[in-house]
Amino acid sequence: MSDLRLAIGIANRAHAGQLDKNGEPYILHPLRVMLAMETEEDRIVGVLHDTIEDTYVTPELLWRVGFSQRIIDAVLSVTRTRGESYEEFILRAKANEIGRRVKLADIADNLSPDRASGLNAERELRYRRAWLVLAEGRKP
């Protein structure tokens, strides 16, 4: 089994039963992020990007099933830790090249018209500011 297929399976099981703010199956969000990426590594991190933060998945589990430390580090770079400010989190994601690309795709998906209707103005502004930090000035 390819690493990408394994990642999709893990994300699908981990997010089973979760719904987003619009009542849609949550797995659709990581799948859209994955599809926005160009390389296999980026796609793997894209589909796994919310698993450690929002599910039972751990870095140890990802290691045990065979993912490289590079992949795990990138997933961790887009995993907000308890007590971490959003600004610190974005700077940490920016420091990992895969994480930076994945977080940009994550924010772009969160700001898409289909999903943005579930955002309040404060969260939308926070995403737009994060985009500018990650993209170094490019607009979403």
Outline the structure in words:
This protein is mainly α. The chain has a single domain, classed as Hypothetical protein af1432 (Orthogonal Bundle). It is 64% helix and 0% strand. Helix 1 packs parallel to helix 3 and helix 2 runs antiparallel to helix 3. The longest helix is centred in the C-terminal third of the chain and has 15 residues. The model has no long low-confidence stretch (mean pLDDT 93).
- Per CATH, the architecture is Orthogonal Bundle
**Helix count from the secondary structure assignment:** 10
Order of SSEs: HHHHHHHHHH
**How many β-strand runs?**
0
CATH top level label: Mainly Alpha
Largest sheet: none
**What gross morphology would you assign?**
globular
Count of structural domains: 1
Instruction: Compute the separation of the termini in Å.
Output: 35 Å
Named CATH topology: Hypothetical protein af1432
User: Which strand-content bin applies to the residues?
Assistant: under 5%
CATH superfamily: Hypothetical protein af1432
Mean pLDDT over the residues: 93
- The Rg value, from CA coordinates, equals 14 Å
Q: Find the structural class using helix and strand composition.
A: mainly alpha
The parts where pLDDT drops under 50 for at least 5 residues are none
* Relative helix content: 55-70%
What distinguishing features does this structure have?
140 residues; mainly alpha; Hypothetical protein af1432; 10 helices; globular
